[in-house]
Design a protein that fits this description.
423 residues; mainly alpha; 18 helices; 0% strand
Length: 423
C-alpha cells in the first residue's frame, strides 16, 4: 500500500466514524437535553445558558447532515440571520466607534445564527416540546419564588433593584411571564373545547399565576404594551366573533379589577406622565423622558447617514456627539436607543432596517399554520416585535435568547409537522 492510499484509507475511516457519530442516538439525545437545560436555566442565569449553548454546539455539530443543512439555508428564515451577522461584521469597517465597541456590538447579532441549527435539529427531533415545558416549569417556579421574596426579601438569590424580583430584573421577568401566559392560552382553549376540565383548570391556574404576578408584584410597561397586542391576535386566530366579544368583556372587567386593587399597577401606569414632566429635573425617575430623548438623538444621527448608518458599535459615539451641557438627561451618553429599529438604523441605516424586518417576516411565516408550536412561535415573534418598540430586545441578552430559542425550537417542531403532513 502506497503512502497516498494509506492516507486516503485513513480519511475514509475518519469520515465513516464521523458519520457513525452523527447517527448516534445518544448524541442526539444529549443535544436535546442541553437545549432543555438552556431553556430551564435562562430565567435564572446568564452564565449557565451560555455554557450550555457552547456544549450544545459541540454535541449537535456531528449530527448535522451538511448537504441537507446547506439546502435548508436557501430558505430565508435560515439564511437571513447569517446575512445579518455578515452585515454586522462588514459594518465594523466604516464605524466611528472604538474597536472595543465594534466587537462588542457583534455579539448580540451573532446569537441569531443559532436559529438555523436549532430549526434544523428540532425538525428532526421528537423532544422539542420538552424544551417548551422546561421553560414553562422554570418560569412557574420563578413566579412562585417571586411572591416569596416580595414577602421576605432576604430570600433573594442576588441583589436586584425591584421588590419581588429574585434574579435579573423586572423587565426580563415580566417578558417571560407574558410569553408563558399567552403560550398557555391555546392549550387552555383546546382542552376546554375537548371537555378536559382538569387540564383546562391547570392551564388557567398557571395563566393566573403569571398574570397576578405582573399585576401585583412586578411588571414592565413594555410587557403591558404586549398584552393587548397578543390578546387581539389570539382572538383573531382562534376565536369566533361571539367568543371575541366575551374575551373583550372579560378583559375589560379584569383590567378594572386590577386597576382598583393594585396600587402597584396604577403607579406603573400613572408614572408615565410624571416621568415625562419631571424627567429633566430628576434622571432617576425619567424613564419616559429618557426614551423620548434617546429617540430624538437617534433620529438626528440616522438623518446624517440614512443608507448604511454609522457602522457597527457606533451608537455610543453618536450619543457622545449629541451630548449637551444642559440637563443631566441631555448630557447622558448611552449605547442603546431603546428601540430595535432605531438601533439597527443608527448602525446600518436603511439596509439594516430592511434586513431586520425581512428576518422577522421570514421567520413569522414559519408559524402561519395551526397547532401549538406554530402558536408559540407566533407569540415569540410578535412579542419581540412589539416589545422592540420600547427596547432593543432582539439584541438584549435575555429577550434575544428567548427569541432564538422560541423561533428555533418551535419553528423546528412546525417544520417537522409540515414534513409529516406531506409524507
Amino acid at each position: 500500500m502506497t503512502a497516498e492510499s494509506a492516507v486516503l484509507s485513513d480519511l475514509s475511516d475518519l469520515r465513516g466514524r464521523w458519520q457513525a457519530l452523527g447517527r448516534s442516538a445518544a448524541l442526539v439525545r444529549a443535544a436535546d437535553v442541553l437545549v432543555i437545560l438552556i431553556a430551564a436555566s435562562l430565567p435564572w442565569s446568564t452564565t449557565a445558558p451560555s455554557v450550555f449553548v457552547g456544549l450544545w454546539l459541540l454535541a449537535v455539530t456531528p449530527t448535522i447532515d451538511w448537504r441537507d443543512y446547506a439546502r435548508e439555508l436557501t430558505r430565508p428564515a435560515f439564511a437571513l440571520p447569517f446575512v445579518f451577522l455578515m452585515l454586522a461584521l462588514v459594518g465594523t469597517l466604516w464605524s466611528g466607534g472604538d474597536w472595543a465597541d465594534r466587537l462588542h456590538a457583534i455579539k448580540p447579532v451573532a446569537k441569531l445564527v443559532l436559529i438555523p441549527p436549532l430549526l434544523y435539529h428540532f425538525s428532526r427531533s421528537e423532544r422539542g416540546l420538552w424544551v417548551c415545558l422546561a421553560f414553562l416549569a422554570s418560569c412557574a417556579l420563578l413566579a412562585v419564588y417571586s411572591w416569596i421574596v416580595l414577602v421576605d426579601p432576604a430570600w433573594k438569590i442576588t441583589a436586584t433593584a425591584s421588590a419581588g424580583v429574585p434574579v435579573k430584573n423586572y423587565i426580563d421577568q415580566s417578558q417571560e411571564f407574558t410569553l408563558c401566559a399567552f403560550a398557555l392560552a391555546l392549550p387552555a382553549l383546546t382542552f376546554w373545547r375537548g371537555g378536559s376540565v382538569a387540564a383546562t383548570a391547570a392551564c388557567l391556574a398557571l395563566i393566573l399565576l403569571f398574570a397576578t404576578n405582573m399585576v401585583f408584584v412586578a411588571s414592565s410597561r413594555t410587557a403591558l404594551l404586549c398584552v393587548p397586542v397578543l390578546l387581539a391576535l389570539f382572538a383573531w386566530k382562534h376565536l369566533s366573533r361571539r367568543a371575541t366579544l366575551v374575551l373583550l368583556a372579560g378583559t375589560v372587567a379584569a383590567s378594572a379589577l386590577a386597576w382598583t386593587n393594585s396600587p402597584y399597577l396604577r403607579q406603573r401606569i400613572t408614572d408615565v406622565a410624571v416621568e415625562y414632566r419631571h424627567g429633566h429635573e430628576d434622571i432617576s425617575r425619567a424613564s419616559t423622558a429618557q426614551r423620548l430623548t434617546y429617540w430624538r438623538k437617534a433620529l438626528h444621527a440616522i438623518a446624517e447617514a440614512p443608507l448604511i448608518g454609522h457602522g457597527t458599535g457606533s451608537i455610543k459615539r453618536q450619543f457622545e456627539r449629541a451630548a449637551t451641557g444642559g440637563s443631566s438627561l441631555d448630557a447622558e451618553v448611552v449605547s442603546n436607543p431603546h428601540n430595535q429599529t432605531l438601533n439597527a438604523a443608527m448602525q446600518w441605516g436603511l439596509l439594516g432596517v430592511v434586513l431586520l424586518y425581512a428576518m422577522w417576516i421570514a421567520q413569522l411565516r414559519l408559524f402561519l399554520g395551526e397547532g401549538l408550536a406554530t402558536w408559540i412561535g407566533f407569540v415569540v415573534i410578535v412579542q419581540n416585535i412589539a416589545s422592540s418598540l420600547l427596547n432593543s430586545h432582539l439584541f438584549d441578552f435575555h429577550e434575544g435568547w428567548m427569541y432564538v430559542l422560541g423561533v428555533g425550537v418551535a419553528g423546528g417542531i412546525a417544520l417537522r409537522a409540515q414534513a409529516a403532513s406531506r409524507s
